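User: Could you walk me through two proteins back to back? I'd like the raw sequence and the structure tokens for each, with a short line separating them so I can tell where one ends and the next begins.

Assistant: Of course. Protein one, sequence then structure:
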Amino acid sequence: MSKHIYFHITFWMIIAGINIGFTINFFPLDFIVFSTLFVLLFQSFVFYTNVYLIFPRFFSPSKMTKFIFISLIFVLLVALIQTLADYLVLSKLAPLRTHQNEFRMLLMSFIRIFFWLLFIDIFSTVFKMIDQIRKQAKHTQEITEEKLMTELKLLKAQINPHFLFNALNNIYSLSYMKSDKAPESILQLSQILRYVIEDCEKEKVKLSSEIEYIENYITFQKMKSPEKQSIEFDYSQVNQNIQLAPMMFIPFIENSFKYSNIEENKSNTFIKIKLSSKEDKVSFTIINSIPAKSAYKSGAGTGIKNVKQRLQIIYPTKHTLIINENNNEYKVDLTLETK
């Protein structure tokens, strides 16, 4: 049973209870039951006529005066009809009939009925307004979520070409240098692409898959230079079963390789990567050296901009990203709340 039905049942039980409370000390049970149902008939007519007919047709913030006028006329007419019906039916059946002035009795009865029905009408208007606001909020949320999902799909679609562009550059470099590592790099690339194409289509992946991808990526990058490179990747303090959105860290790692010039094996160049976790929080830190005279590279910043957008969509209030840069180092600290 829906919440709406529970609300209506509860509401009319309360109204019926109030109606019974006015008569329980004066009349027998059979008359109380009949009079309560008789009164509820008019009250429910006012409620649902306003909800399904008057409010949808006439309610508008720009035409509020017209809506109020129509509602008052409607309540007034129903109150007159109920007063007349009350006089012709209930007053004749009442076991304790009074012989006071009938006009005064009708007037007092009309005033009481009018304000009761006016209360019902106002309550139904408030109920309909709240329902309308709720539906509008739900509709707005659905549009927002659809827009975010569309943006997210576009951003994820950018990941593959961006990575593939860098990977092919690496293989080209190895082939150009006629390195024996070229065939191995192609095999390594196939393993990396399998993750990018298959796993990255999922909303979330295990952290272990991200770690494996990063290790493959580092190995792939190392093939570009025969010299030993100062690259550290520490994930000894991480829960690898944690699930998170894929490809959140790799843009920063790509960026570090691009700007550290570590493949050229210049002195004092390094990349340090650390992954750790505590409960459902994952912390990612990467520090890379910056050469004294770092040349600008075309296309720089695409991956970083991409991941910032994805963070805003997937983890809007559940991430912190701090980027610090000085003359010698570039440091990124990213924390994700994955729960």
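----
Protein two, same layout:
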Amino acid sequence: MHELSVKYGCNPHQKPCRVYMKQGELPLSILNGTPSFINFADALNAWQLVKELKEATGLPSATSFKHVSPAGAAVANPLSEALKKAYHVEGMELSLVATAYARARGADRVSSFGDFIAISDTVDLDTAKLLSKEVSDGIIAPGYEAEALEILKAKKKGGYVIMQIDPDYQPEPLESRDIFGITLEQQRNNAVISKELFANIVTDNKSLPPQAIRDLLIATITLKYTQSNSICFAYDGQVIGCGAGQQSRIHCTRLAASKADIWMLRQHPKVLSLKFKEGLKNPVIDNAIDLYLRDDATEVEISEWMTLFEEVPQKLTAQEKADWIKSFQGVAYSSDAFIPFKDNIDRAAMSNVKYVAQPGGSVRDEEVIKACNQYGMVMCFTGLRLFHH
């Protein structure tokens, strides 16, 4: 098959709509559901991300996409007891593939509501059981175990979108898109992101342990498929905060850092011991925790989430938050383009960033290097810009 009809484009009035190959057959098939234009956009970007993560790390990989940017991405790394509770997977059997997705979904559970998923490996029964408990729109993977496929087909009253892609498919070197009736063409972003990319360390501290390289790989590959400008924080084998599509780099950093802070604070003993009323669904609990941790929650929001608890919770103090964040040693930070001002480093330091990767090339590089040295950070100049539009 070289063409598929789609109900409509980005919006219901954008008709007709189709997905097709200019040459050859489509490298994917629809096993269930009726994908939308946005589903295809998410799926094709997400698949590239997990394929590259698997190639770079050798580990099963997963991502959770929303509106053509990743809310989270991760490789299969064992979960702590705190993360199991924060991710609502206590007592569940989790294969390596399921662990990767639990981490990807857990990066920003509020944003991942209704996500499109990509998995680098065959989707197994453990992963399907995990997905059966989450609100999601669809999935793309190279294969599915028979039992897993049946579970997924039952989601969304039988309408869950399930795509299968040929893992050996290689696109043409040139890609094009039409904007306002005008065609733009470019070479695909075929840059290979490997550990060698982080060899040029420009700070006084040059200690880059294996886990830091792994997390910089995750953050940097994630940026390759994130709408620019973008900044990504990674830790413990997963994205913990992604700031996408901002016009100013400091706004990207603030957004990614605030998400990373929430991710860390969700594991605080006070948060894990919050007592919710029985019968609440996970998305309601996730939203309530987000409001509990936010400093900018309105009085109306506070009054609403207070009704969800069995016991009135005591808010974390600013000092408790800062102390807890400081307990996470070795956070990685990657930027899709050069860091123009040291304010990005100052904000990253507040979230305990230790390792930084960026292309370099700003007129203020020396100022940024100096700031990293003051915080004892390790910074690499990759020489590789990764804008994605």
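The chain has three domains: 3-165, 191-265+324-381, 269-315.

Let me know if you want the two compared in more detail.
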